[in-house]
What we know:
Two copies of one chain form a homodimer. Chain A is built from twelve helices and eleven strands. The first copy, chain A, has helices at residues 20-28, 53-58, 77-88, 105-114, 152-165, 177-183, 197-204, 228-238, 265-279, 297-311, 318-321, 324-330, and strands at residues 6-11, 33-38, 63-66, 92-95, 118-120, 139-145, 169-173, 212-216, 242-247, 284-290, 315-316.
Amino acid sequence: MIExxxxxxxxxxxxxxxxxxxxxxxxxxPEIAKAQxxxxxxxxxxxxxxxxxxxxxxxxxxxxxxxxxxxxxxxSSEWIAALKGALDAxxxxxxxxxxxxxxxxxxxxxxQMHGATLHDVRIPSVSYPIANGKKRSGKRVLAVGTDCSVxxxxxxxxxxxxxxxxxxxxxxxxxxxxxxLITGGGIxxxxxxxxxxxxxxxxxxxxxxxxxxxxxxxQGSLFHPSYSGVTMALIHGGQPDALILAHEPxxxxxxxxxxxxxxxxxxxxxxxxxxxxxxxxDCVVAGVSVNTAAFSEEEAIAYLTALEDRLNLPCxxxxxxxxxxxxxxxxxx
Amino acid sequence: MIExxxxxxxxxxxxxxxxxxxxxxxxxxPEIAKAQxxxxxxxxxxxxxxxxxxxxxxxxxxxxxxxxxxxxxxxSSEWIAALKGALDAxxxxxxxxxxxxxxxxxxxxxxQMHGATLHDVRIPSVSYPIANGKKRSGKRVLAVGTDCSVxxxxxxxxxxxxxxxxxxxxxxxxxxxxxxLITGGGIxxxxxxxxxxxxxxxxxxxxxxxxxxxxxxxQGSLFHPSYSGVTMALIHGGQPDALILAHEPxxxxxxxxxxxxxxxxxxxxxxxxxxxxxxxxDCVVAGVSVNTAAFSEEEAIAYLTALEDRLNLPCxxxxxxxxxxxxxxxxxx
Lengths: 333, 333
């Protein structure tokens, strides 16, 4: 687990888009996003207090979280100097960058000297077991998409917020780097070795109270040839009681694959449910989450209404409308 | 690639069962299985000439292949001494053991001194790409099972032999450790990182002549919760034109999971074909391979005849009957 509270490191972010991870942390875990750190040339601003490393440590901040992509794919000397300052001040660092903190000799040495931890959340830090497929107590819901990057993480974390606001026991279970940094824990599923994928998901979603919901972050798509094996492991390791279908209606082909058609939502419903029944015969499809960002408000409502008639399931855009109706649907599962 | 011919290292195998890998190499690649090496106490015998390391090297043997499981899960000092002798004599070593040759300091040092190669086929030796799902030339067939360990490798390699005897262009593509040692190349799919599984299968089965068949070794099962993601990557990375269903009719539960029921062959047919159509809409199910080892000859024939009526597909046990009818079925694909 990554220790909170966080100082969000924005580095020399060229724009707000580059600070996507930091924005996610601030939006979803405002209680732990205490301050931001910016280098000269930074064009991102989260509206949080700017702090130096020394100020952050003095304010009780435990971890500097890199909330920005690194320009040019390498960790610059300006970044290294600032991050070394974080370790010198007694804080840990957490990163989801492809370049690992643990490959930077200066940071490794400073961390050792100060007894600090470098969290590289892109790679697994534990040896996961092989899945056993045994029925576990507690309830689980998983978002599965017609494609990658259609809003599965947003849907899951919005559902967690809604359920907690209702006083339900609910835990968002992160399976990707951004989700891990937002919540401080999880599994980097795309970096797990094939034989242990489903076991990692079982490890992430252990036995729990009968009325507790794990809301598992989805990855990939059963219909995306590059990543479908990861999605499969989520379904069989996650043992879901309910599935949420996630869809982006303007996609003309699968992400990154111009030749690969997007499936119909009905195809996803049928396929995902059949696969889920292998580990849980009682699994149901509870609702549909649609990313309508490309539509006007009016277009979005028209699309969702028509889709709801077509599928006979609650169809909502949780960004526009909140996740309440998806959570309502879980009350009966 | 592992250089042939081979000296098959049987070590101190307690019985023939422990020498499964060596038996596979001798059965399927007799032309490269030149000799065997046995330590005192070895109770396995392949009927090949016994050679010392020096004799093997003098006879032109290039690689010592460990064809036996190691007792107690560690590489003993007797093994190390013998294997060091192989390197001293100028040969390479190939192993599919969980304990890696490259973790044995003495062997690493000797290999460096002699410019020899230690092949640990249990771990990937190349960085595989992310799959792109683009249509490739050439034809591919994949065996998918109702469960793990139902004869998928045997089926594939028997089909390769039959196709080559008919003068067809065919290549068995190994995806597991035993298959890699038998053929000298392949991918250890269960040890590949999740994001690269399907890409590894694409790498293994590249574009080829229009009349060339890749016969891809299957792994796991879509219905086995521990390994289904690996099977999924084989289907989407392998882009099969034809599927062979593999089944073991006396299995009462999924291998290693007493609570997990075995699917009907019809369920496998429907599920696997739908998933294959995501990457190749023309894929067909060509036949069924049944492991009838638990049946008498009469029982086996009765079972296969009834199954063939039920499924309207050629149903054969390639161990009893050869793979001819499965290969016949591919002629029309």
